[in-house]
């Protein structure tokens, strides 16, 4: 019998198939578990057992019945039963000799996955056992919570572990029987086509009973079937197929948990009297966890009184005590001396302990035992703080920083990000540029070779962007290859760069289609392609046939650390920077256009010399110096540390990177280390990154600033320190995507893993040992899974994991051991079924892909702040989401709509407000006037993307906080009435606009970015007036239906960037736009020849007038 879920889809119209589908989902969990665990069995014919499970014969005749009887005997074998008990040293090859908590947690986690699969059934199907199963989930969840509370296990706990093992083994026996019942039912369901309705578990048991007891007809010809009943009885008394027997068994089982809890209470009381300390989680020294836990406590006080009945006053007191502790330790630890750092560590650890105790959903009686212990530990830390305070002369105590940061500059203003400063390599750059534009007419490879950190990419970009090269080639593109390259990704990157289109435009194309498109795009055109960070010549060998050689001087520019890659062309070896060049680069990075003070000259040159000619090392150490006070004794300290590191190791640059990390303010350290969770050489969307930081609790509230704005400030500080690179900018100059240098990422990952902050899990490269996953991962703050197969194989069971980022996971059943999870990103899983989501009550960030139009239940996500849904068809937004006070952003890639009933409720009451914290929604379908009216219930919306599906007058002027609006209407309607006065960015897609409506847009006093895409202008003409667009900085016209554009330089007084894409009707770019003093760039892509001609004319006129600042980029 094929037990795959997919095999059931073909018969989904038959009655009973829904139940069969759910049972098959349940069965898949133990099958997968057995399959995975069998890899670690010492000796067992488990492979044959699995085959028996998956190939049960259909009893069409007596011969099949005999075979079925034999297979049932195999099913009830001791080998299979072993998998439904806590694994031990007798059957496993990877466990220790003695029972440990990790083995028990791993097994309970498996049981909880099966519990969640049962509760995923339709409630009517499991009505007879639902209540008992929910109690079982609660009790198993508590056992995991207890086993994860490491402060209760610092002393030997062998006896209590044995008691827990005995109870959970009985639960395993119950699920063994449930599996047996499910297997029999699946066999019956596949064999028989019945018209009888299967309404619930009673019906399932009836069918199984009927099958096992119907022997009258068969006995006339063969008595073999009668032997099946004794075989069934071997499974256990609870397998007798009578209605309600499963519930009866649970009723017998659940009281045993009460006895077990009594023993746990006794154990906890005993342990509490023993000397203990807080078991550390991450070793990262940072206090963000204190603020995070304070928020959790406040939420518990305000919203979950039922969970803390009887201890509510103690929870309030705990909040007050922790707040005082956090304030005290921050004030005392201004200078990062060893004794102060120890206080930081102790404060951090008690905060993590409090977080686990209150968020792991323990029973109230457990809290009554644990809270006094937490108070005692806080008091001990505060006593230590007071002792230090008594030794300090408060009159001489320096001004307290908000975070202990270590000699940071007191400047509050964020420095502007400067463009890349390139020092040295002038002769090499001239030489390479000459190789690109001169020489042979054949297609030629030019390579820049050098060791890591030398600046190969910077030099390649400098040459690529130089006017002599940019104006010589008709087609230009760049891509990053890296060590772990993917052919399709490279083709997409080149096409995206070549055509100036988003990568998403090409993702649905196969490799051959991409290759064909690339070849045709380059054929007959002189092109230059930069392939950055190519490690192996085989990459080029696999791609070169897609690059035509028309003997017109096309070039391929490599950057590589492997000299052999460039042997088929011209090799340019990149030298180290000289001492003078290092000093010049350091000086320009630290002081910009100013001169270095005389007292810092000698020590500055010493630091530059110690960077050994590595540009990246100079840039990183400059980031340290630029962000501290310009005092000689502080620079001397940096030089001393730098010299010490350099004399101790050959890997000097890595030590420089570590030194730069050491000098980071404490609140920036987790933000920096988090970059290790993202794939190498991938651009990171800034909005996603910021959302993750906020959800993680890294960002502290600041007065009159949103959390997102504070987080953006953190990012800008990291960029300013040269630890993070700007990958792409927005049209208004802001950072759209960022990335981290691959070498910095290596340092980042090493520091993160050493501090148990972040672990990148690669199941295919390093398969996790099932029973060691708890101990291996439980202390990490964040787990990033690069690839995986299933919840058993790829989702680790870390009890203290706060975030789980999955690049690939074919199943999304969430382990019950993830008690305190705050971030769950299942971004590459199209089959999110939501099993186990219900217990993720502390989730702040959820990113999922759904294949249909149904979201998983959102009821339990009381703290959810960010929701990202990648959907293919429009989904209805659950009403419960709209009333969640915590929700800040929700994004639906495939569109979403608000229910009609909710709209009616919201629009009847003028004072009705739903969520005052929601500030970003996309993409929202607007189907009626009610949908527009309901938006007034979100008064703090800042970003909104809407798509209209009907024609009526619409106005957004009530959204006073709205700063960014994307408005799509493919009905070509022209009923725009009013727009919010504070709007800074406006995108119009697929609309028809009249002169009056464009006048409304022009009068927006704060508008900085305007994008018009597929917009039809009335009369194909756009006339602007004086006083319009007073603050507009960026204007983009894409496929607009306009022939005449009548405007003046005075109508766009602050315009900096003008982009025209695929504008075929427009006759010319108004010449006066070139005279706008602020205009830096005109970009023309795929436009009519008249547009290209007018763009070139503007460039020539401006050059004649001495305007060398204006750049004109033209791509056909």
UniProtKB/TrEMBL annotation:
This is Disease resistance protein (CC-NBS-LRR class) family. Confers resistance to late blight (Phytophthora infestans) races carrying the avirulence gene Avr1. Resistance proteins guard the plant against pathogens that contain an appropriate avirulence protein via an indirect interaction with this avirulence protein. That triggers a defense system including the hypersensitive response, which restricts the pathogen growth. The keyword Protein transport does not apply. Residues 678-746 form the Disease resistance protein winged helix domain. Residues 431-595 form the NB-ARC domain. It comes from Abeliophyllum distichum. One of its GO terms (cellular component) is cytoplasm. Keywords: ATP-binding, Cytoplasm, Hypersensitive response, Leucine-rich repeat, Nucleotide-binding, Plant defense, Repeat. The lineage of its organism: Eukaryota, Viridiplantae, Streptophyta, Embryophyta, Tracheophyta. Belongs to the disease resistance NB-LRR family. Its main location: cytoplasm. GO terms for biological process: defense response to virus; plant-type hypersensitive response. It is found in: Cytoplasm. GO terms for molecular function: ATP binding.
């Amino acid at each position: 019998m094929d037990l795959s879920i997919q095999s059931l889809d073909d018969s989904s119209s038959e009655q009973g198939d829904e139940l069969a589908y759910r049972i098959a989902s349940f069965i898949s969990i133990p099958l997968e578990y057995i399959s995975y665990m069998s890899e670690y069995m010492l000796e067992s014919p488990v492979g044959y057992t699995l085959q028996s499970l998956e190939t049960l014969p259909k009893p069409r005749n007596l011969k099949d019945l005999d075979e079925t009887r034999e297979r049932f005997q195999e099913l009830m074998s001791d080998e299979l039963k072993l998998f439904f008990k806590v694994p031990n040293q007798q059957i496993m090859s990877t466990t220790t000799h003695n029972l440990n908590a990790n083995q028990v947690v791993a097994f309970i986690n498996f049981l909880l996955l099966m519990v969640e699969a049962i509760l995923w059934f339709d409630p009517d199907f499991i009505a007879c056992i639902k209540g008992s199963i929910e109690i079982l989930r609660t009790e198993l969840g508590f056992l995991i919570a207890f086993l994860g509370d490491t402060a209760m296990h610092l002393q030997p706990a062998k006896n209590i572990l044995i008691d827990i093992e005995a109870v959970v083994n009985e639960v395993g026996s119950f699920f063994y029987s449930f599996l047996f019942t499910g297997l029999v039912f699946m066999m019956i369901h596949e064999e028989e086509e019945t018209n009888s309705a299967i309404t619930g578990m009673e019906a399932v048991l009836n069918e199984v009973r009927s099958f096992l007891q119907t022997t009258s007809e068969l006995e006339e010809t063969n008595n073999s079937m009668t032997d099946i009943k004794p075989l069934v009885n071997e499974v256990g008394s609870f397998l007798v197929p009578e209605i309600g027997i499963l519930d009866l068994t649970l009723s017998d089982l659940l009281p045993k948990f009460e006895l077990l809890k009594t023993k746990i209470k006794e154990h906890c009381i005993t342990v509490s009297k023993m000397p203990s300390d807080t078991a550390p989680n991450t070793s990262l020294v940072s206090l963000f966890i204190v603020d995070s836990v304070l928020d959790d406590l406040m939420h518990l006080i305000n919203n979950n009184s039922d969970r803390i009945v009887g201890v509510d006053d103690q929870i309030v007191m705990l909040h007050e005590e922790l707040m005082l502790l956090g304030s005290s330790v921050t004030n005392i630890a201004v200078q990062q001396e060893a004794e102060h750092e120890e206080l930081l560590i102790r404060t951090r650890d008690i905060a993590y302990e409090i977080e686990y105790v209150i968020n792991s959903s323990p029973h109230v009686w457990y809290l009554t035992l644990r809270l006094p212990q937490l108070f005692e530990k806080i008091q001990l830390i505060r006593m230590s703080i007071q002792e230090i305070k008594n030794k300090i002369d408060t009159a001489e105590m320096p001004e307290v920083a908000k975070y202990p940061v270590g000699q940071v500059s007191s400047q509050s203003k964020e420095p502007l990000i400067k463009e890349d400063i390139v020092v040295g390599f002038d002769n090499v750059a001239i030489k390479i540029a000459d190789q690109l534009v001169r020489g042979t007419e054949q297609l030629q490879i030019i390579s820049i070779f050098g060791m890591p950190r030398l600046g190969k990419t910077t030099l390649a970009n400098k040459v690529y962007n130089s006017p002599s090269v940019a104006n010589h080639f008709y087609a230009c593109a760049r891509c990053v290859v890296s060590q772990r390259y993917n052919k399709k990704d490279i083709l997409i990157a080149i096409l995206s760069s070549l055509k100036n289109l988003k990568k998403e435009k090409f993702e649905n194309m196969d490799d051959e289609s991409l290759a064909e498109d690339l070849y045709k795009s380059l054929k007959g055109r002189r092109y230059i392609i930069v392939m950055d960070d190519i490690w192996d010549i085989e990459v080029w060998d696999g791609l070169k046939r897609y690059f035509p050689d028309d003997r017109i001087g096309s070039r391929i520019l490599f950057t590589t650390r492997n000299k052999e890659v460039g042997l088929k062309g011209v090799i340019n070896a990149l030298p180290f920077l000289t001492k003078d060049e290092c000093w010049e680069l350091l000086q320009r990075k630290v002081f910009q256009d100013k001169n270095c003070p005389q007292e810092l000259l000698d020590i500055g040159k010493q630091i530059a010399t110690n960077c050994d000619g590595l540009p990246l090392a100079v840039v990183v150490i400059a980031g340290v110096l630029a962000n501290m006070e310009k005092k000689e004794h502080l620079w001397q300290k940096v030089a001393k540390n730098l010299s010490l590191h350099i004399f101790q190791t050959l890997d000097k640059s890595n030590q420089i990177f570590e030194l730069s990390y050491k000098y980071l303010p404490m609140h920036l350290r987790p933000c920096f280390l988090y970059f290790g969770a993202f794939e190498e050489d991938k651009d990171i969307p800034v909005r996603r990154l910021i959302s993750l930081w906020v959800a993680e609790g890294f960002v502290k509230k600041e007065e009159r600033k949103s959390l997102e704005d504070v987080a953006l400030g953190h990012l800008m500080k990291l960029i300013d320190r040269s630890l993070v690179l700007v990958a792409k900018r927005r049209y208004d100059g802001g950072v759209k995507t960022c990335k981290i240098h691959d070498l910095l990422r290596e340092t980042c990952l090493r520091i993160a893993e050493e501090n148990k902050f972040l672990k990148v899990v690669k199941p295919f490269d390093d398969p996790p040992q099932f029973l060691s996953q708890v101990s291996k991962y439980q202390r990490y703050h964040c787990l990033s899974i690069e690839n995986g197969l299933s919840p058993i194989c790829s989702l680790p069971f870390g009890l203290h994991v706060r975030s789980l980022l999955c690049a690939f996971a074919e199943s999304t059943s969430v382990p019950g051991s993830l008690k305190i999870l705050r971030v769950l990103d299942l971004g590459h899983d199209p089959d999110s079924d939501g099993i186990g989501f219900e217990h993720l009550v502390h989730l702040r960030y959820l990113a999922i892909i759904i294949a249909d139009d149904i979201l998983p239940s959102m009821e339990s996500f009381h703290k959810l702040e960010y929701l990202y849904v990648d959907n293919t068809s429009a989904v209805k937004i659950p009403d419960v989401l709209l009333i969640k006070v915590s929700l800040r952003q929700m994004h639906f890639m495939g569109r979403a709509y608000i229910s009609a009933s909710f709209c009616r409720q919201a629009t009847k009451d003028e004072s009705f407000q739903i969520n005052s914290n929601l500030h970003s929604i996309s993409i929202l379908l607007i189907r009626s006037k009610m949908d527009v009216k309901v938006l007034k219930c979100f008064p703090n919306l800042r970003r909104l993307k809407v798509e209209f599906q009907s024609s009526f007058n619409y106005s957004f002027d009530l959204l006073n906080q709205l700063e960014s609006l994307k408005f799509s209407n493919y009905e070509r309607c022209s009923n725009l009435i009013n727009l919010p006065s504070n709007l800074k960015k406006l995108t119009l897609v697929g609309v028809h606009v009249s002169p009056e409506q464009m006048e409304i847009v022009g009068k927006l006093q704060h508008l900085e970015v305007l994008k018009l895409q597929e917009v039809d202008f009335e009369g194909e003409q756009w006339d602007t007036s004086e006083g319009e667009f007073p603050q507009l900085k960026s204007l983009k016209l894409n496929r607009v239906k306009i022939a005449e554009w009548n405007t003046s330089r005075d109508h766009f007084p602050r315009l900096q960037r003008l982009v025209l894409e695929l504008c075929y009707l427009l006759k010319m770019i108004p010449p006066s736009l070139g005279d706008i003093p602020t205009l830096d760039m005109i970009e023309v892509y795929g436009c009519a020849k008249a547009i290209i001609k007018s763009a070139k004319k503007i460039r020539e006129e401006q050059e004649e007038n001495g305007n060398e600042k204006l750049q004109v980029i033209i791509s056909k």
